[in-house]
Design goal:
By secondary structure, the chain is of the alpha+beta class. Helices cover about 15% and strands about 25% of the residues. The two termini are about 25 Å apart.
Length: about 100
Amino acid sequence: MHFQNYRDFYQLKLIPINLNDHMPSSDVTHWLIALEGHAPSDDSEFYLWNVVVYQANSDGYFHKKKPYYISSSFNCFHKACEAASKLTEKMKNPHFNFVATENIG
């Protein structure tokens, strides 16, 4: 990971971009799916989790400030993991065309 100080970020294995997905740059060759956690307030004892998709190159470099997709928040890490797994399986299908507004929950 190239953000050493990003504490609650769990990236999953890169997924090659489908030929059906039209990317704006030839440098973008893969999807990076990650789980990002954040406390809803400074005094919160629990985290909210989002499934976030980034466009990446084959080395895994991506622009953190430009996510392609952000899911709604999950109040349970395991539910966020399950949603990320569902999305991963869909994205591996060669006929799947990623639409950033799709509901994966």
